[in-house]
Amino acid sequence: MCSFSTNISKPERIVDVNGEAYQLKRFLGNGRHTEIHAAKSLKTGSLVALKQINKKYSDALKNFQQEIQFLGKLNHTNVIKLIYAQESNFTILTELAKYDLFHAIYERKKGLCRQVKNLIPPQLIDALAYIHSQGIAHMDIKAENVVFTNATTVKLIDFNLAKKIPINEMGNEMRIFNSNGTRITWSPQKYDRTYFFVSKDDIWALGFTLLEIEIGNPWAKPDMEDRNYQQWVHDPLANEDFRSLAMRNEEYFCLLRWMLNQHEDRRCSAAEAKESVYIKQWLQKKTK
């Protein structure tokens, strides 16, 4: 987990990374076992995000090595770029973002304009399709883990919980049981504590995040006891927010319904979402 903050950090301190001194300038956020600061190289003056992982927790080394392995493998415009990692003090340097999507949705006075909202889905769907093509599942997609590096570019961050997509000897993805990640974005399968495909769990979490951009938090839990979720599954047009979205852009609404299908076998993959009518129409408009 990572959440950005505008709070000023405690008195600035120096962190040594591979013999280069970085001055911690501003506290950005933290997770269960991590802290992230904006940091400035005293040698070059460049600004980076400096993430430090608490060595004390049991899986620290394993998660650290896994995160840098995945980030080192990935090279995509909409995935945060790894600059350097140092195992001796569990420190990761990445490019610095301006703010996260959660902050943009709920805390900025003006919120997100329609033009920016329209730019986000194609970028994140393309990023997720790429990540899955590399055999990796993110496992914790949410608004806090999407950042803006400029006014129109978003990137996925925080691969601390990421996993290799398990594949059997026939080359097919296998289901797993896992309760990591952020509860609000859990798929119905994860919520029900059953085995699930990690790629389909990722696409659910992304669908939830995209829907959240449009209407705020759509439901509290993917359970029929939740009225909003029940309406999403059985009669979305009975819900004013869902109906408004459908009327504004039918193709996008249909894509979100596909990404957020309660049945895992009927839910689209990231690659299928990338080939959807909505994304193709968006690309056609972009090239005109």
Automatic annotation (TrEMBL):
Residues 22-283 form the Protein kinase domain. One of its GO terms (cellular component) is nucleus. PROSITE patterns: PROTEIN_KINASE_DOM (PS50011), PROTEIN_KINASE_ST (PS00108). Signal peptide: none annotated. One of its GO terms (biological process) is mitotic DNA damage checkpoint signaling. It holds the Pfam family Pkinase. SUPFAM superfamilies: Protein kinase-like (PK-like). One of its GO terms (molecular function) is protein serine/threonine kinase activity. This is Protein kinase domain-containing protein. It comes from Steinernema carpocapsae (Entomopathogenic nematode). The lineage of its organism: Eukaryota, Metazoa, Ecdysozoa, Nematoda, Chromadorea.
